[in-house]
Design goal:
Number of strands: 10
Number of domains: 1
Shape: globular
Order of helices and strands: EEEHHEHEHEHEHEHEHHEHHH
Helix content: 25-40%
Strand order of the largest sheet: 3-4-5-6-7-8-9-10
Radius of gyration: 20 Å
């Protein structure tokens, strides 16, 4: 398994990370993702470790803490120092006016809860799950810096920030000498390339490692979708409208056609090709994969065992080229002033 530096930090992470949102199935939304129990979770964790993946991602709100609890149980037989744990806070957890956000009071409560549920003394990568526009950024970053100094957190990261959210946060951390975000957990896939417009150049310039969530486009790039065929009966695609990105049918089919062509060339599966395309992109440190069962996990783990050629990546780039929003379409007309990042790594 290849390991990459996580942004400007000294931490090295495997190019694949196992996401545990499927653990627990604590409500209707998460049951659509999966209902993995402790026994199955332990088996999946062991398969990851055997493959060289020691990085595991969760969040306090995944099934309201149940995912963290199951993950904590599933790793208890393994040496803690051999693992990397990532979790998140910010979104609503519990009741009351201080039960969401990135305030000192909420984060202090949530870090203690996550440590208890995960049965660990520290978190390797602690994310702000989303931007809180009501809490002063200084308050959030000072609180996170305190967690680092206390040894409860090794590195801090953000998720789902806009470019100015991230840049202002970095600038404030550097102004006061506080712990700095080293990674940005972002949505990025062959059918969701908005990350490339502003966040990727920022990550490239500022030394942020990208941790990719939903790399298979909210389940649309698993190989189950074909032109003229109905969706499978058991799939979270039926719930895609609940927080998932909207994707035009013809655009999706065009991308899937290109994926199938490259999959045929390489002898790999459609999801393996879709995942490997991400690993060829600049700033990407690790791609978060999920799995309902052992078969799906083994297939996803194999995505790191080969490398698409530059020509194959270009074929997928062209098929999935998005319509740019302003001002990015304007900037692309002046590439002598706004050069593109490398399209292949």
């Amino acid at each position: 398994m290849e390991f990459r530096q996580l942004g400007k930090s000294g931490l090295k992470v495997p190019v694949l990370c196992f996401g545990t949102a499927t653990f627990g199935g604590g409500d209707e939304f998460f049951r659509a993702w999966g209902e993995t129990d402790v026994a199955e979770a332990t088996r999946l964790i062991d398969l990851c470790v055997e493959a060289g993946v020691n990085f595991f991602d969760t969040a306090d709100v995944y099934s309201q803490g149940l995912s963290e609890e199951i993950l904590g149980q599933a790793i208890k037989h393994l040496p803690r120092e051999s693992l990397l744990l990532s979790t998140k806070a910010t979104f609503l957890f519990g009741d009351g006016p201080n039960s969401e956000g990135s305030s000192r009071v909420h984060l202090t409560r949530q870090i203690e809860g996550s440590l208890k549920r995960l049965k660990t003394e520290y978190i390797d990568v602690y994310h702000m799950h989303g931007f809180d526009a009501l809490t002063p950024i200084e308050e959030t970053l000072n609180t996170l810096d305190q967690f680092v100094r206390e040894g409860k957190v090794r590195y801090i990261a953000a998720s789902n920030f806009s470019g100015w959210h991230m840049q202002k946060s970095i600038d404030i951390s550097e102004r006061y000498g506080w712990a700095r975000y080293v990674a940005h957990q972002v949505y990025y896939s062959l059918i969701g390339r908005d990350y490339e417009w502003e966040l990727m150049p920022q990550a490239y310039a500022e030394g942020l490692g990208a941790l990719i969530w939903s790399p298979l486009g909210w389940g649309r790039l698993t190989g189950k979708i074909r032109r003229g065929q109905p969706l499978p009966q058991v799939t979270r695609l039926h719930k895609a409208a609940e927080g998932g990105p909207v994707v035009a049918d013809e655009y999706l089919y065009k991308v899937v056609d290109a994926l199938e062509a490259v999959a045929s060339e390489t002898g790999k599966s459609v999801p393996q090709v879709a995942l490997n395309w991400l690993l060829r992109k600049p700033t990407v440190a690790s791609v978060i994969i999920g799995a309902r069962d052992e078969k799906q996990l083994r297939d996803n783990l194999a995505a790191a065992s080969f490398a698409l050629t530059a020509a194959q990546v270009t074929k997928l780039d062209e098929a999935s080229a998005p319509q740019l929003a302003y001002p990015y379409w304007h900037q692309r007309q002046f590439q002598s002033l706004n050069p593109l990042l490398p399209s292949y790594r």
